[in-house]
Design brief:
Number of helices: 15
Strand content: under 5%
Largest sheet: none
Structural class: mainly alpha
Order of helices and strands: HHHHHHHHHHHHHHH
Radius of gyration: 22 Å
Number of strands: 0
Oligomer: single chain
Distance between the termini: 22 Å
């Protein structure tokens, strides 16, 4: 899998990137594991014991269990629809496989986002999705997902203001989200409308990257202005033809994920009087903004602690066990299922590709996870000058169809 994740980064320099220092990688992994262990071992039990959490879950009726399962399934399907909206050349079954496969990697490995990108690239390239299409898909879906994360606190603040007095934390998060959202929207608008702005922005980014590479003593050979111009031309056509679909499906995938949280709260037995839906939306929006940076795999630990602390503060100490149970149930049904389903998806893609993509019926099983044009050592054989590769390589790695 490392060989899959390396090519985008290798394209920055054109001659491959030196491997990360083992000590630094081990330190990151150990730090992530220690943080997750501290959260689940000390922080979460501060709100409720795991025995009381299990008792709350065990008291659920079959109707409540089915409600939670249906909400989780709808959230997963909405993500697949969003992927098809941004990448119209693939079908739902292919979107499901690439989403589940990449999520399985991202949810289990520290810094798994980069490896998840490699898995999705290998799958999509085997279905004749070009490098340019993949780069455009990743950038556009990533930008729209960031827009959704920044816009949710603003929406939550407006809704919560109609029911109660918003807290200082939500007001701060909404203000920060609104400012960043306005800046990003204005920047994207200028990038799409003005070629000269794209060139100037590319030069500024390139100068910053050259300086950073010089300080880090890394090779530096890239063309950010050219990459931005290439992205501008391709993204302009995609946004013009499918912008409303991308916006609608991205909003739906985020809101259905919140509906899973709401279903878990109601399924555990927390009423509207105990935890209003407005409060749950505000907590969801705040934590989504908090977990923009992937400190732990899939935000594990941080998401749970943020939701429990926010919701328990509004529900009161006596409902702490039910709130903790609802949050842990929500994370269980959204975080765990993609792992075994993703393993099945990867095995199906490798050994029974005809079940996913009809054109591969006569091609036999996929021999290995590899990218067209990339040699075993990660050398670029054909895509080194593809516009957009550099931009993709310099963005934070995210999994395909990220909804967590």
């Amino acid at each position: 899998m490392t060989a899959i994740a390396d090519p985008p980064a290798a394209a920055i320099t054109g001659q491959g990137r030196p491997g990360a220092r083992p000590g630094r990688k081990i330190f990151r992994i150990a730090g992530s594991v220690a943080l997750v262990a501290a959260i689940f071992g000390f922080a979460v039990p501060h709100f409720a014991s795991y025995r009381s959490v299990w008792a709350s879950m065990h008291a659920m009726t079959w109707a409540q269990v089915l409600l939670v399962a249906a909400a989780a399934a709808a959230s997963m399907i909405s993500t697949w629809i969003m992927i098809c909206a941004v990448l119209p050349s693939i079908r739902m079954r292919e979107a499901a496989v690439v989403n589940l496969g990449s999520n399985a990697v991202a949810n289990t490995l520290p810094a798994g986002g980069a490896l998840a990108m490699g898995v999705s690239w290998a799958m999509l390239s085997s279905w004749d999705v070009s490098t340019a299409e993949y780069v455009l898909y990743t950038l556009v879906s990533g930008i729209w997902n960031v827009f959704a994360r920044l816009g949710l606190p603003v929406l939550a603040l407006v809704i919560l203001a109609t029911a109660s007095r918003p807290g200082a934390g939500l007001i701060t998060a909404a203000a920060a989200g609104l400012a960043l959202l306005a800046a990003m929207a204005a920047g994207l608008g200028l990038l799409m409308r003005s070629e000269s702005f794209a060139v100037r922005a590319g030069r500024a980014v390139q100068l910053a990257l050259v300086t950073a590479c010089r300080v880090a003593r890394r090779p530096r050979s890239f063309d950010i202005p050219g990459s931005l111009l290439g992205f501008r031309d391709r993204a302009g056509a995609l946004i013009a033809s499918r912008g409303w679909r991308i916006t609608a499906t991205t909003a739906a995938s985020n809101l259905t994920l919140w509906l899973v949280l709401l279903a878990c709260l109601r399924g555990i037995g927390l009423s509207q009087a105990q935890v209003p839906w407005q409060t749950s939306l505000a907590a969801f929006a705040f934590v989504r903004l908090l977990t923009v940076l992937p400190i732990t795999p899939g935000g594990l630990g941080i998401t749970e602690l943020g939701l429990i602390a926010t919701l328990a503060a509004g529900a009161g100490h006596r409902d702490g066990a039910q709130v903790t149970a609802a949050v842990l149930l929500y994370r269980a049904v959204t975080y765990l299922p993609p792992i075994p389903l993703g393993v099945i998806a990867c095995l199906t893609w490798q050994h029974a590709p005809a079940l996913i993509h009809a054109k591969l019926a006569d091609a036999g099983p996929v021999a290995e996870m590899s990218l067209p044009g990339w040699g075993p050592a990660g050398e670029d054989a054909s895509h080194q000058n593809q516009p957009g590769i550099v931009i993709l390589a310099t963005m934070p790695a995210t999994r395909v169809g990220d909804a967590e």
